[in-house]
Amino acid sequence: MNFWLSLIHVDVREFVEVASLAEELGFTGVVLPDHVCLPEQPEARYPYAEVTLGLDAPYPDPVVGIAAMAAVTSTLRFTSYVYVVPMRDPFSVAKSFATAAILSGNRVALGAGVGWLFDEFALLDRDFASRGARMDEMLDIITALWRDGVAEYHGKYFEFGRAHMQPQPEQQPPVWIGGYSDAAFRRAARHDGWLGLNDEPEALEHHLNRLDAARDAEGRRSAAFEVMVSPAAPPSVNFFRSLQERGVTSILTPPLAVLTGDARSPVERRDGLARYIDDFVRPLAP
Questions:
Q1: pTM higher than 0.90, yes or no?
Q2: Which of 80, 96, 108, 125 is most deeply buried (CB count within 10 A of its CB)?
Q3: Is the Cα torsion angle 75, 33, 181, 232 positive or negative in sign?
Q4: Is the CATH number of domain 33-169 3.40.50.450?
């Protein structure tokens, strides 16, 4: 079982220190959230929990953050959880993640989702209703550019002749899909993984069954596949082991602030993370 540390709402000035510590202690990787700009009075409501967007909460650019942390680590992996692809254009996404993949030595995955905050789409002048269909086309373009360094596309939303992109990554970053719609599970099954979030155990089992069905429908049940979850249940070695037996490959930890409490000094922060490693990561190490 792999364990990934959540950096949601961590001050960007602490990224380098936290990444170095996470690698030293034995975390598999770190994940970064994504928002571009938050409206002061959004009409949309977060669909997965009763939360209020904190306008002063930090959401640094995840790809820039990944590049900075990659420079001070050698084994730690990185992903976005999730990068709202249809708020961008496919060429910029392909170029950013390709560059980060090269700089990190192929330690980057694109954790992608369609997004939920339609007010943010409006700020960026992107259509919200078509975001799923557009993301499907965008992922076709992005993976083609990574694979071949050149792409040509004739779709409903994107139409262009042969276009080249360099630098081209030595390995294609895996694409992991977040979301709970039928389309999200189909999308995940066509790519390299699925990202869940804050599920009660019974709901998680239901979602894993849906994921299995989608992978069966795509004929990709035997392909290598990432399943990362952050279950809304008390952590325990036995519980995590049962998830591993069910096909879950990675656990996303609670946010850093939850694991370390009010700790601000490097020593206090290390102690909080080390306890999690000793309690859960080491007992489940291969």
A1: yes
A2: 108
A3: positive
A4: no
